[in-house]
TrEMBL record:
Residue stretches of biased makeup (Polar residues): 1085-1094
Xref: InterPro entries: EF-hand-dom_pair (IPR011992), EF_hand_dom (IPR002048), GRAM (IPR004182), PH-like_dom_sf (IPR011993), Rab-GAP-TBC_dom (IPR000195), Rab-GAP_TBC_sf (IPR035969), TCB1D9/TCB1D9B_PH-GRAM1 (IPR036014), TCB1D9/TCB1D9B_PH-GRAM2 (IPR036017)
Gene Ontology terms describing biological process: system process
Gene name, Swiss-Prot/TrEMBL: TBC1D9
Residue ranges of the region described as Disordered: 410-450, 1013-1113
Protein name: TBC1 domain family member 9
Extent of Low complexity compositional bias: 421-437
Domain named Rab-GAP TBC: residues: 510-697
Length: 1199
């Protein structure tokens, strides 16, 4: 290809000149081509790989040089001699003579460079090539990647790194290529080549390891091998990218959410690093956005625009705190460099003014931000302040219209005008409606005063406290409220509150009952989603009411099991509110729908929050704070169970081995995590845990769980079995009390189910929580995320293995394949599906829609015709070696296996077909072959009213047949001459003999049917025959007719018109007819042939020849002719005339005739009974995969 001219100082170094003229030189890289150029070529090839030379991709180049100059310019390079020769010839024909006219060398150089750049520009214009953000160096790496590993253009390279791959005890220096779907390695050292290709979806473990020999190494584990890479220039960057790509692959396996490139991410950093792809930059931006959203509990669609260092003036302690400012589309956030010192979230919907303040030596480059609730935030020490202010102003302008819209639709007011609310944008709500509302009033507007639903927290209805009642508990509760009010006055209220260590201390001491719901909404970030989606919950409820599916059935079943001991859920008001929230969420997120334990958590949310607020709290819980916890396979809970086991091994090692032996950790952790301890602790104590969880996140649950184990360490070490250990933990959790609770005691269901042993001494919940922070507070959120990644790989791959085992266990009794063979076949089947998901296909179905983890195991992976063709050519013994008719045979086989006609086949259907070919007996294989060559069609036979069949004179019909075939020799063509061994020659003759025999049977049957039609027409009234229509239910239906293409037809045709209703009178008999069917062909034609047969020249000739043993009769029928069939069996095959597009209504062959004919030839019998080497075919399929191009899709290494 032509390249922009670049200067080359040494033209002959490591290159060999092959052609030259006064102005241009064509060169080839040493070591390229035959022989590799000896030792010098081996050294050059090694240097090219190690140094990442562009000559690896383009071993040919053309240089330009003026006669008197020592400077060379590279103007073209090529990956093949043909490509570079075309460029050379163009130069000789179009430029060489023109250059001789110029007198000045500078003019010649300018002309050549301009001409080459013009060619490139014209090419880009004609081929719609757009300039992208990738550097030229990275574009070369992409070409190398595709060339080395045979990857299609759809496979996007993210980045590549120099490293060593340890093969055995020998390191191989080379390059590691990380693409969206694969991790690849290539090394070439002194003639030895090493290649490795691994799918991200096949990785079971990915970790950094450090040993004395390899201080910085990455270990990549699959189900079959471990691979170690070392000597990275930046191992942290490499490993983070590998983690991210593996996470994407796991997400695809989990719920089909593929990665979509997002090039719209604006960046504050205007300098982009060199040698980094645009895709890599987008992935980095995505990872930063995920960390940003997790840190500040922001909505899932929020994208980080950029961040910069700064200081924040904090009025509560009169200090400038050093930290980082983060700017995104809808938020400005700040976190201090000292993690717990201060954090701040400012939604742009709350901002009124952003302005630059006066700079001074004490306060350089300050920016002031004011909000609606009259708070002002002063940031200073900002780099590039003007650019930052402009970015914020742009985002503010985008949100202005949204703010006015929200004011009009939600009627929101400032919190300063609403003394009862802590949230600056919380809309006013009407008072609680009456319980006795009618069913017809259920369609409601949440902002309407007439709403007959729980517009207040359910707890307010059941707070049994008289105005004059006053006791120490109420006094303590009052002091808590005062402390929170004082804190809000000092640190700000609503979303823009300064969140400090003092805020955390107040949370650990317990949130007051009447402030709990609003603070949950604030700390979880749910307030942001509710404020930006006015009316969303109302619409969901209206759409979901009255609709039923599996999720709503499960919800109805669990409604009365949700805190049944609490009076709020002992009446229809609480139950109806719970039903609406759960059903609305099931319709919002059908991937989750409804999962057990959601009802318990949601019922607690409804006690303290309004109905819409409870819904958004549930959204925050399921989609952000507890990701993947409540899907059908509780993957998130299983992941955190693995994290908990790791933490237990680290923090309570003396107890870990004992707990593992008893199997207790896996039992307790699911119930503890899924319900946030609500199902195992007394209610008034568990809500304190929920307080801490909404403020600190999942680390609180891990800390508390470890503390519970640590507190019972001696009893657990003495436990003899898991039952005793569970009893110890159950008693302990039942004894956790909240002495400050003003609520009436609620009997705990878990405590009612324990034994009658001595109760455990009471444990104060606040002391338990405080103790968990003191002992295990060092657990960091980022460390938990690292552990989650490691466990997610393990959990999802375990689920995939379980799915495989369940599928194999289901169908192992239905086939003769062994369990190991079925597992290998399942892996190949799944890989075919995943490949189509990665790179798409030409099929009509969407690959990502074919994998639904919620379906039964056998239905989770399905493939279409395009994927089936790939497997057919590799695994099925009938697939032609030369591939000439492979696609047609695959099509026919696929139609036969697709029982439900949805153009997709599952693993059971796939195995059923393969099993017949590999392990079926002779009759089964022939029956399958017979069915493969028919297309769906309907034919009903004539049924005589008298129940009698006319016996024909067979001698008369044979004489007629003999006369009709006198000209047969004239139309026959010589069979092809084949160079075959004796066995194949015998097989060939056997096929020809059987075909001739079937031809004779069909021709005889044709004459029988034709004579019967004549007799029926003589006996029936002509008028009746004209008015009689085709019968609808008057006969049996054969499985179809052979596929055959007419003369000159080059495309598949398969059209059939349905039979019409039958008409009958008292004198005649019912007539049946079949409309014309246009058929498809599988064999070449000869214009003078009335019967033809396809013979292949390999061992599968009998299979492909059978695709055309549906021989053509000499008769011709018009398109509107009717087919009158009598006494035709269910498996009869009908064949049309060659020179017509209609069915030859008289030619017929039954399966019994076909079977009997084949059995007459021993060679065919031996061929079909020949055993198939299944293991060899599976091994070959694993090593060679045909998907667009030859590609090794399993982890292999050569060299």
């Amino acid at each position: 290809m032509w390249v922009h001219p670049e200067e080359v100082l040494q033209a002959s170094a490591l290159w060999i000149t092959e052609r030259a003229n006064p102005y241009f030189i064509l060169q080839k890289r040493k070591g390229h081509g035959d022989g590799r150029g000896g030792l010098a070529g081996l050294l050059v090839g090694t240097l090219d790989v190690v140094l990442d030379s562009s000559a690896r991709v383009a071993p040919y180049r053309i240089l330009y040089q003026t006669p008197d100059s020592l400077i060379y310019w590279i103007i073209a390079h090529g990956c093949s001699r043909k490509e570079i020769t075309e460029h050379w010839e163009w130069l000789e024909q179009n430029l060489l003579q023109t250059l001789s006219i110029f007198e000045n060398e500078n003019d010649i150089t300018t002309f050549v460079k301009g001409k080459v750049q013009g060619i490139i520009a014209e090419y880009n214009k004609n081929h719609d090539v757009k300039e992208d953000d990738d550097t030229d160096k990275f574009k070369e790496a992409i070409c190398t990647f595709r060339k080395l590993f045979g990857m299609p253009e759809e496979e996007k390279l993210v980045n590549y790194y120099s490293c060593s791959y340890w093969k055995g005890h020998v390191p191989r220096q080379g390059w590691l290529y990380l693409s969206i779907n694969h991790i690849c390695f290539y090394s070439y050292l002194l003639g030895k080549e090493a290649k490795l290709v691994i799918r991200w979806a096949d990785i079971t473990q990915l970790e950094k390891s450090a040993t004395l020999l390899l201080p910085d190494a990455v270990k990549v584990s699959t189900r079959v091998a471990e691979h170690v890479f070392s000597v990275f220039l930046n191992i942290n960057e490499t490993f983070k990218l590998m983690e991210q790509l593996a996470n994407i692959a796991m997400r695809q396996l989990l719920d089909n959410e593929g990665f979509e490139q997002d090039r719209s991410l604006p960046k504050l950093k205007r300098k982009t690093p060199k040698k980094v792809s645009a895709l890599k930059r987008d992935l980095d931006a995505r990872a930063k956005s995920e960390r940003y959203r997790a840190l500040f509990r922001l909505p899932k669609d929020e994208k980080l625009d950029g961040h910069t260092g700064c200081t924040l003036w904090t009025p509560f302690n009169k200090m400038h705190i050093l930290g980082q400012m983060f700017v995104s589309t809808n938020y400005i956030c700040f976190t201090s460099k000292e993690e717990t010192l201060c954090s701040l979230i400012i939604p742009l919907r709350e901002v009124t003014i952003v302005e630059k303040a006066d700079s001074s030596n004490f306060l350089p480059s300050p920016v002031s931000i004011s909000t609606k609730n009259r708070m002002t935030f002063l940031f200073a020490n900002l780099k590039d302040r003007d650019f930052l202010v402009q970015r914020i102003s742009d985002f503010l302008q985008q949100t202005t219209s949204k703010i006015y819209f929200e004011r009009e639709t939600t009627g929101s007011v400032n919190s300063s005008d609403d003394e009862g609310s802590l949230l600056s944008s919380s809309p006013q709500r009407s008072s609680l409606g009456s319980e006795g509302s009618s069913e017809g009033e259920r369609q409601f507007n949440l902002n309407d005063n007439s709403v007959p639903t729980a517009t207040q927290a359910l707890m307010t209805m059941y707070r049994r406290r008289s105005p004059e009642e006053f006791n120490p508990k109420l006094a303590k509760e009052f002091l808590k409220e005062q402390a929170w009010k004082n804190h809000i006055t000092e640190y700000g209220q609503g979303v823009c509150m300064y969140r400090t260590e003092k805020t955390k201390d107040l949370v650990l001491k317990g949130i007051p009952e009447n402030m709990r719901g609003e603070l949950w909404l604030l700390f979880s970030g749910a307030i942001n989603e509710m404020a930006t989606h006015p009316g969303y919950y109302e619409d969901l409820v209206e759409k979901s009411m009255g609709k039923y599916n599996l999720a709503t059935e499960e919800i109805e079943r669990d409604l009365h099991r949700s805190l049944p001991e609490h009076p709020a859920f002992q009446n229809e008001m609480g139950i109806a509110a719970l039903r609406r929230v759960l059903t609305a969420y099931a319709f919002r997120n059908p991937n989750i729908g409804y999962c057990q334990a959601m009802n318990i958590v949601t019922s607690v949310l409804l006690l303290y929050a309004k109905e819409e607020e409870a819904f958004w709290l549930l959204v925050a819980l399921c989609e952000r704070m507890l990701p993947d916890y409540y899907n059908t396979r509780v993957v998130g809970a299983l992941v955190d169970q693995g994290v908990f086991e790791e933490l237990a091994r680290e923090y309570v090692p003396e107890l870990y081995d004992c707990m593992q032996d008893l199997g207790v950790i896996s039992t307790i952790s699911l119930s503890w995590f899924l319900t946030l301890f609500l199902s195992v602790m007394p209610f008034e104590s568990a809500v304190v845990v929920v307080d801490c969880f909404f403020y600190e996140g999942i680390k609180v649950i891990f800390q508390l769980a470890l503390n519970v184990l640590h507190a019972n360490i001696h009893q657990l070490l003495g436990a003899k079995d898991d039952g005793e250990a569970m009893t110890v933990l159950g008693r302990y959790l039942d004894s956790v009390t909240n002495k400050d609770s003003t609520l009436p005691p609620i009997p705990h269901l878990h405590s009612l189910l324990t034994d009658d042993g001595d109760p455990h001494p009471e444990v104060d919940i606040f002391k338990l929580v405080r103790s968990s922070y003191e002992k295990f507070g060092s657990i960091r959120a980022d460390v938990i995320e690292q552990m989650r990644f490691k466990q997610r790989l393990r959990v999802i791959q375990t689920i995939e293995d379980t799915t495989k085992r369940n599928v194999v266990r289901t169908i192992v009794t239905e086939t003769a394949f062994s369990i190991d063979e079925l597992e290998e076949l399942y892996v190949l089947f799944k890989e075919e599906h995943l490949t189509s998901c990665y790179w798409g296909g030409t099929g009509g179905s969407n690959p990502t829609e074919r994998h639904d983890p919620s379906l039964p195991y056998l239905e989770q992976y399905r493939i279409d015709l395009e994927q089936f063709r790939g497997l057919f050519s590799l695994l099925f013994p009938w697939a032609p070696v030369n591939g000439a008719h492979a696609d047609l045979l695959a099509l026919r086989f696929f139609r036969l296996l697709d029982h439900n006609g949805d153009s997709l086949i599952n693993f059971r259907e796939f195995i059923s077909g393969l099993s017949v070919l590999c392990h079926g007996d002779l009759t089964e294989k022939l029956k399958l072959l017979y069915k493969m060559h028919v297309i769906p069609g309907k034919c009903v036979c004539t049924v005589h009213r008298k129940g009698k069949l006319h016996t024909p004179d067979y001698r008369h019909y044979l004489r007629l047949w003999n006369q009709g075939t006198k000209n047969k020799l004239d139309n026959m063509k010589d069979l092809p001459k084949l160079n075959q061994d004796a066995q194949e020659q015998e097989l060939y003759h056997a096929t020809a003999t059987v075909t001739s025999l079937l031809l004779e049977m069909g021709e005889v049957g044709k004459l029988f049917c034709h004579s019967k039609d004549q007799e029926e027409q003589d006996q029936d009234d002509p008028e009746e025959a004209k008015t009689s229509g085709p019968a609808q239910d008057g006969g049996t239906k054969p499985e179809g007719v052979f596929q055959q293409r007419g003369q000159g037809e080059g495309k598949e045709e398969s059209q059939a018109r349905p039979c019409g209703p039958a008409k009958r009178d008292g004198r005649g008999e019912q007539l049946s007819a079949m409309e014309e069917i246009r058929l498809e062909d599988s064999s070449p034609k000869d214009t003078g042939t009335s019967s033809s047969m396809l013979i292949s020249d390999d061992e599968t000739k009998d299979d492909t020849s059978m695709s055309s043993y549906s021989v053509l009769s000499g008769g011709s029928h018009e398109l509107d002719d009717k087919l009158h069939c009598e006494d035709i069996n269910d498996d009869t095959v009908l064949v049309r005339s060659e020179n017509s597009t209609s069915i030859d209504k008289d030619w017929a062959i039954t399966f019994e005739q076909f079977l009997a004919s084949v059995l007459t030839e021993q060679a065919l019998v031996l061929y079909f009974e020949k055993p198939v080497e299944v293991a060899a075919r599976i091994t070959n399929a694993k090593n060679v995969r045909k998907v667009g191009c030859s590609l090794l899709l399993v982890a292999t290494a050569s060299g």
